[in-house]
Amino acid sequence: MLLGAIIANLSDETSVLETLASLDDVVLLARMREAAAASGEPLGSFASAAVGSFVARADDAAWLSLMAVTSKADDPGKACLRYILGTEIPTPKPSCSCHH
User: Fold this and answer.
1) Domain locations along the chain
2) Mean pLDDT of all residues in the chain?
């Protein structure tokens, strides 16, 4: 699928779950849902904003990494979106109740 079509699906709240689920990354989907809920935004709007943030702030190294990921992928559009969202969505810090 072309990246433009994938990103367009993010603005359609009825197909955003399908689009994100098609990335085959349940951990990323869970992180997206959690981050969107924490920000009080619909999932599609949150995902679109994350893509926009990457485009606006990515340095040369980020773009080079993105190109490397997509050049090896069977579906470059999905690989691109997965990479962008994975870098833009904060990784939750592990909660450890163990004491060292």
Assistant:
1) 3-88
2) 86
